[in-house]
Design a protein that fits this description.
The structure is a single chain. It is built from 1 helix and 26 strands. By secondary structure, the protein is mainly beta. It folds into 2 domains: 159 residues, Jelly Rolls, CATH 2.60.120.200; 193 residues, Jelly Rolls. Strands 1, 2, 3, 5, 8, 10 and 26 form a 7-stranded mixed β-sheet that branches. It has a 7-stranded antiparallel β-sheet with strand order 17-16-15-14-21-12-24, with no helix packed on it. The radius of gyration is 26 Å and the shape is elongated. The two termini are 34 Å apart. The C terminus is likely disordered.
Length: 386
C-alpha cells in the first residue's frame, strides 16, 4: 500500500456549523470532535495519478480521557470529473458514507489508529477534484466514548505495492516498439534481484530497426556481475551481485560516454560511438538470453541524468524528475506492466510476481502547512466558516 496524501488539522475546511474545534494539545494541532454532537471537517485535493487497489483513510486519534469505550466515524468522498454535470455552485455529491469504530486507549494521550476502507469511493479517477469528509457520529449507538476525540492526522492511501516482475523463462520478455527510450542521450534505471547465475543475461536493451546496433545492460560471463555493452564492445563491472539481494541499476549515456551505476555509485564506464534510432526496447530477453531474476520500478529519460539525480531517483518508485521522462513502469505484477508515462510493455511468455525491493513510492503530498505559534492559545482556534 502507498500513502497518497496526509490530511492535517491545519488544512481542514469547515461547514458553517457542527465542526470540530481546531486546537493544540501539547503543542500538537488537533481537531477536537465532540462527544455528543456529530461534527464534520473536509479536506480538498486532486486525485493523484497511478491510484490503484483498495482505497482507505487511516485516522490517528487520541482521547481527552481514559477509557475503553469506542468512537464511531464516517468517511465520505466526493469526486468530480471534468465536464461532470455536478453544479459545484449549489450542490454537493458525496458518495454513501464509509464507517468504522475503534476502542479508545485505556491511557489518556495514547494514540490509536482506525482504517476506514472507501468501499464507496464515488468512482474517483486520476485528476478528479476530490473532497474527503471525516465526521464523528457521536449520536450513533456504537459511539459510547464520553469525551472529545482528537484527530491528529489522517492518511489517504491506496493498495499499491512495491512488487517485482520476473520474465526469466527462456521465452519470456517485456518489449515495446513505440514510446521507447532513445539511446543518446538517455538514462534507464530499475531495481533488480538475481536468483541464479546466467552468462550474458539481458536486463535491458534498445535495438535499431535492422538489428545492426544495440545498447544494453547484461550479466557478465560468470552471470554474477553486470556488463555494459554496445555493438562496438563492452565493459564489466567489478561488483558481485549476491543471489536473492536487491540492487539498484542505472545506465546513463551522454554522447559517446556511458556510465553504469550500482546502488547509486559508478560501477563501470564505456566509451564509443554507436548512435541509432531505437526500434525495439526490451527488458529481459526478447530473443536474447533472459535475466534470471526479478525487476521492479523501471524509469527512463531521454536525457543524461547527473550522479546526484541517479541517487535521488534510486530512493523512489515515483519519478522525482519529470523533464524528458519517457517511462515510469512500477511493474506492479506480471499481469500489470503498463507504463504511466507512455506506451506499456508487451509480455511474451508467462512471467512471475514476487515481493519488491526496499524502496518507497516517494514523498506523498502533505495537504496544508502551519507555523508553530509562539505560545499556545488561551482558547481553541476559531476557523473561518464557509
Amino acid at each position: 500500500m502507498a500513502t497518497r496524501a496526509v490530511l492535517t488539522p491545519f488544512s481542514a475546511e469547515f461547514p458553517s456549523s457542527n465542526f470540530p474545534a481546531l486546537t493544540l494539545v501539547n503543542a500538537r494541532p488537533v481537531l477536537a470532535y465532540d462527544a455528543s454532537t456529530q461534527e464534520t471537517a473536509y479536506w480538498t485535493l486532486v486525485v493523484p495519478q497511478g491510484l490503484t487497489g483498495t482505497l482507505s483513510v487511516v485516522l490517528s486519534l487520541i482521547g481527552n480521557a481514559a477509557g475503553t469505550n469506542s468512537t464511531y466515524w464516517e468517511v465520505a468522498v466526493e469526486a468530480v470529473t471534468s465536464a461532470d454535470a455536478t453544479d459545484l455552485d449549489s450542490t454537493t455529491s458525496f458518495a454513501t458514507v464509509n464507517t468504522g469504530n475503534v476502542a479508545m486507549p485505556t491511557t489518556q494521550g495514547h494514540m490509536v489508529q482506525l482504517s476506514v476502507t472507501l468501499t464507496n469511493d464515488d468512482s474517483m479517477a486520476a485528476a478528479d477534484y476530490l473532497r474527503i469528509s471525516i465526521a464523528r457520529d457521536a449520536d450513533n449507538g456504537s459511539d459510547n466514548f464520553a469525551a472529545d476525540a482528537y484527530l491528529l492526522a489522517a492518511e489517504f492511501r491506496d493498495g499499491a505495492e512495491v512488487v517485482a516482475v520476473s520474465v526469466s523463462g527462456a521465452a519470456d520478455s517485456l518489449s515495446r516498439t513505440a514510446g521507447m527510450t532513445q539511446n543518446d542521450p538517455s538514462t534507464v534505471m530499475f531495481w533488480v534481484r538475481r536468483d541464479t547465475a546466467t552468462a550474458f543475461g539481458c536486463l535491458h536493451v534498445v535495438v535499431n530497426a535492422g538489428v545492426t546496433a544495440y545498447e544494453g545492460i547484461y550479466t557478465n560471463t560468470a552471470g554474477t556481475g553486470l556488463r555494459l555493452e554496445n555493438q562496438g564492445g563492452g565493459a564489466d563491472g567489478s561488483s558481485t551481485l549476491t543471489a536473492g539481494t536487491w540492487y539498484h541499476v542505472a545506465r546513463v549515456r551522454n554522447g559517446t560516454n556511458r556510465t553504469l551505476y550500482l546502488d547509486g555509485v559508478s560501477e563501470v564506464t564505456l566509451s564509443g560511438a554507436n548512435a541509432f534510432t531505437t526500434n525495439i526496447e526490451a527488458i529481459s530477453g526478447n530473443g536474447i538470453v533472459a535475466f534470471p531474476g526479478y525487476m521492479s520500478a523501471f524509469k527512463s529519460w531521454n536525457a543524461a541524468l547527473t550522479a546526484d539525480e541517479v541517487l535521488q531517483e534510486m530512493r523512489s518508485v515515483r519519478p522525482m524528475r519529470f523533464a524528458d521522462l519517457v517511462s515510469r513502469s512500477p511493474l506492479f505484477r506480471h499481469t500489470e506492466v503498463q507504463d504511466y508515462n507512455g506506451t506499456g510493455w508487451t509480455l511474451s511468455g508467462t512471467g512471475l510476481t514476487d515481493d519488491g525491493p526496499p524502496v518507497s513510492w516517494g514523498v506523498a503530498p502533505i495537504i496544508g502547512s502551519w507555523v508553530q505559534p509562539s505560545a499556545a492559545p488561551a482558547t481553541a482556534f476559531q476557523p473561518n466558516a464557509f
